[in-house]
Amino acid sequence: EAGVAQSPRYKIIEKRQSVAFWCNPISGHATLYWYQQILGQGPKLLIQFQNNGVVDDSQLPKDRFSAERLKGVDSTLKIQPAKLEDSAVYLCASSLESGHRYFGPGTRLTVT
Amino acid sequence: GENVEQHPSTLSVQEGDSAVIKCTYSDSASNYFPWYKQELGKGPQLIIDIRSNVGEKKDQRIAVTLNKTAKHFSLHITETQPEDSAVYFCAASIRGTYKYIFGTGTRLKVLA
To answer: Which terminal CB of chain B, N or C, has fewer other CB atoms within 10 Å?
Structure first.
């Protein structure tokens, strides 16, 4: 069974630029999550989708972050404009309904 | 708000010795406690979990114990091997939901 795919794996941008991350969940998983993992910390949930609807985006900084999951499969997370404090690993995970999370390898973002 | 504290932040053990990582949670309604292992450059992978109606669960060299009264749970790894070296995260569900709060992680080094 293929795992959660993410791209790119690494991204370096300057502050105030925009960036987008892509995630392809495990086939058949209805629930998709985006987490932010700052160095030395545990993952923090940014947004959770159930199929193509948002279940929870309470921790998403909506003034600069946006996410969508068209057709209930792939998802993109965008940051515009980026700040220095956005430097982190962005993890995508998926699950059957709200069960075990299967995480992708993450995208390491560096904002200079 | 809900919080999960994890100790120690780093742990070095000799190969073959045991390792114990402890977490304390604040939400008395938490009822699900997963443990994740994160290797360098990879996303977290679920290694064991426990529900609040169980006091202990074991899977080969890994065990988890839960003390609901004290609101803490621990990961025990016996007969450690170099491949156990990784960062380990505990997590606790929030208010009986499937949302998780993650601990800050423990970097385990198994010395050969």
So the answer is: N
Which chain B residues have any C-beta within 8 angstroms of a chain A C-beta?
4, 6, 34, 36, 41-46, 49, 89, 91, 97-105
First to last CA, chain B: 41
Burial of B69 (0-12, 13-18, 19+ CB in 10 A): exposed
Interface size between A and B, measured as CB pairs under 8 A: 45
Other CB atoms within 10 A of residue A58 CB = 10
Residues of A in contact with B100 (CB under 8 A): 45, 101
Residue of A nearest to B88 (CA): A42
Burial label, B27 (beta-carbon count in 10 A; 0-12, 13-18, 19+): middle
How many CB atoms are closer than 10 A to CB B24? Answer: 18
Q: Nearest-CA distance from B83 to chain A in Å?
A: 18
- Write a three-state SS string for A34-61: EEEECCCCCCEEEEEEECCEEEECCCCC
